[in-house]
Amino acid sequence: MTPVFCMTVCWIAMLGFGLFAEPKPCKDDWALIFHAPSGNGEDVLNTWKTRHNNCDIVSGICPCSMSDGCLPPKARIETYKSPSKTLRSPFIDYWDCLNINKVKFELNVQGDTVAFLEFDGRGSNYLNWFNNSRILNSSWTDLDKSETYNVFSIDTLRESMFGRNFFINKNNGVCHVRSGWLVVKEKTNITNLCEWDKHTTYPQFLYSQHGKVTRWIAKEYGKADVLNVYIQN
User: Fold this and answer.
1) Contact at 8 Å (CB) between 133 and 145?
2) How far does CA 186 lie from the centroid of its chain?
3) What is the pLDDT of residue 11?
4) Does the global pTM surpass 0.70?
């Protein structure tokens, strides 16, 4: 993409983002761009990374239907488990153009926020915003930039093989010694899984409770109903 064309696309994307949004359409001035219910059988990571090929913001032709898994700009479904489909905003495809200041990752149970992370979104892309070096605020008291992590990523090859995405983990090792804060558990064909990897339905959004790290094998984690991602500019 040439620099001039890229600048044009970015300008239109930002203009469209402003035009489609109502005044404070979501919580405060956060705009919802991703909504995933637990247990619906859909792959969260794959949905997050898959572009909306039928959306062309430059031309203004961008059909967006919830039935097709597209999150409309004026959606007000942050805290509900319905609709049951995972929904993705086409603006994720124009991440670099949106002048993003902050990104929020949030888990909800029956409409209440049970865990969240806020990240510095400046200069980020749609994958690397989820990094410990960008942490601004967190519901976990022991999770910050200076903490030691062996995994803090949306997508790592080894962990994704075991169906672990959006994974924040403290230490490596065998199943009974691993401890962490957050994991989106997806369905996988791998059979030699840890007990905490095994669930009757997928995806599952596991989070350490009591505001601090937990040993996964102890199963002292919570399971959220809904995962939401917001941006703020």
Assistant:
1) yes
2) 13
3) 47
4) yes
- Provide the residue type at 61 as one letter: I
Q: Is the pLDDT of residue 2 over 80?
A: no
The pLDDT of residue 56? 76
Bridge partners for 224 per DSSP: 205
CB-CB contact of 116 with 139 (8 Å): yes
CB environment 187-221: b (16+ within 10 A), e (fewer):
eeeeeeeeebbebeebbbbbbbeeeebbbbeeeeb
Residue 109's alpha-carbon distances to 38, 106, 118, 210, in angstroms, are 10, 10, 18, 15
The residues, ordered by sequence, that sit 6+ positions from 11 with a Cβ below 8 Å of its Cβ are 97
In contact, 88 and 71? CB cutoff 8 Å = yes
Q: What three-state secondary structure class fits 217?
A: helix
Encoded tokens for 2: 């040439």
In one-letter notation, the amino acid at residue 55 is C
